[in-house]
Please model this.
Amino acid sequence: MNLVARIVARDKNLSVLVLMTASTLTVLVALLGGRFLSAGNLQSMSSQVSEFGFLALAMGLAMLTGGIDLSIVSAAVLAGIMGATVMSGQLVPVTESNSNALMLAGILAALVTGMMCGLLNGVLVAKLSIPPILATLGTMILFTGIGMVITDGQSVPISIVSYSALGATTIANIPLIFLLMTVAFLVMGFALSRTRFGRRIYLFGENSVALRFSGVRNERVIILTYVTIGLLVGIAAVIMVSRVNSARVGFGESYLLQAILVVVLAGYNPYGGRGRVISLALGLILLQSLQSAFTILQFNPYVKNLIWGSLLLLVMVVNYYVARWNPLPVSPSLGPKEPGSASGSTGSSVAVTHRPLGKDADPDPRASVEAGGQPG
Model:
């Protein structure tokens, strides 16, 4: 039992998330059976979660810095529109000889547009000190307006057949876009835990002042983080356009709420400095499983937003109590001692104080010992 308690105490949010995911999958399999576990449904889930996974990963990066990016969906739509415009034949007519070149140009246009959107957000937050929620709220409206002006509110179709097949391509019955998302999660997990840039993102979220006094340029960290977010958004745009064979303003509006939901569900600290990619992957599995179950059960689409909003509030309440819960029993020897009691043969008293879990503290319980006298 003590072993289980130590494992849970190491990462309480991850432990609770594993329990929630396992319980949810068990219930769904028991209720839906073959309809949920069918090859067609699993393949459909893998395709649907791919574009959303990149957006959730982008939102997680923003939250690690103690901020939020409300513009990820509108930036992805704008990037998709730019890429679709290149591949629609409106600028250069599409022929057999130039289709591959235009496809590469369209993908590049989407990626560059996403990164430029991220750069704008980073400059607003880092250089002008605008709070991330306000900066990205403004750019969300801006990007939507730009997309509306370019398209006049109409869809932009894709004229390149080979690009449209990208969203349906499979390798060993696994969608290619799902494999791309898996690689992105592995790379991002490695970068955040093993590279200097990743550690600086965590440190900025924990204590930006301490990071600045350590000689690191905070503005550069923020700008590079938001550019990386823009790259992830651009990749999501490429996948979105390939799946629906067009781009239009308003596509994927529900993704913003779901991205925030899955990041909070994964235990990311809204104040920054805490969050793990593996938890984000589990949150995606849980959320996509519920989404698939709603589709199989033919839920009213207007009810889904009610469910997502209620689930978001529930998750925040659960996270609050999980943060206060200590699965490890407190040893009696660590309790407060009577004044004047001896500690060993030195005659000094020892007081133990526990650090409260804050936004810059690890989930592991720690104690600091203050000696009341010098050893003899």
In short: The longest strand covers residues 350-354. The CA atoms of residues 237 and 290 lie 24 Å apart.
